[in-house]
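Field reference: sequence -> structure
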Amino acid sequence: MSTVHDKGYKYLFSNPLIVKELLQSFVSMDWVQYVDFTKAETIDKSYVTDQYKEYEADIIYKLYFKESELYLYLLIEFQSTVDRFIAFRMLQYIMELYRELIYKHKCKRLPVVFPILIYNGDKKWTAPVSLQELIEVPPVLKQCKPYIPHFQYYPIIENAIDKTTLHSMMNVISTVFLFETGDTEEFFKTVDRIRELLHIYDNEPLLLRTLLYWLVQYLQSHGMVEETSIILSTIEKPQEVGTMLSRTLEKIKKDLRKEGFNQGVQVGIQKGIQKGIQKGIQKGIQKGMKDGLLKGVTQERINIARNLLKHGMDDRTIMKITKLKKSQLDEINKDK
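Structure field:
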């Protein structure tokens, strides 16, 4: 995965403070509060075989807490299609890590690896979260179930997180998820959060810089800005780049609102035209029906019918005299 957007995401989670926010916001487990994120280490993936090199969005951290350690495996899934066998794929990757620990580092016991899948696609996530769900066990083999490999990943599915929940969190990770999953109106609201975050993280320049770098990549990958070199050249000064980005975002907001207004006008015009066409068609149909009903009726008989109607003669008698049908007489009646 080598797109600008993917690299921006990879950069985002290369900051342990972002990972801290991710865990504290979306992983409700006791051990999270004991992790010392100042000691968090990213693990070099040089051990990964060529078969798995393509998964550039895989990040592994070694986390320390109390007298224990844990490996955190993050897979950021960008694919537009849902990979049904993602559990198998993640397990393979973890096995590569264990192989490295066994044969290179001579570990006597293997550490816990906590696997997290972050999905930021548009489709509903339907893939099984456990390996067992992928394995078909016929009734005759049900006694084998205890011996089937057990593996399960922890899913964080961005498009399934309630927007109210995200809005209630004023931090970087929730802001990123709002940008990723919102519509145009959501984008407007989320843009306003950037200013607040600039103040909240005033004493966290590294965290702020990470967010701003990701945001620049996001805007570029979505075609909202073309030239990013000027903004990125000031990335080491978060407040300065933040001010520049705020102006850029405000301009984007205005452009989007203008575009939305123009689109609204265009839609209105198109609806008006369509309504006019439909009305014209309806009139044509009605006229055609009328013409069809009176077709073949001589003007003389029509005139006789009209005169008789003026003198108050009943319809039945008029039809008898003029040989007109009821529907034809009704049309003449409308034109009185």
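Note: The chain has a mean pLDDT of 78.
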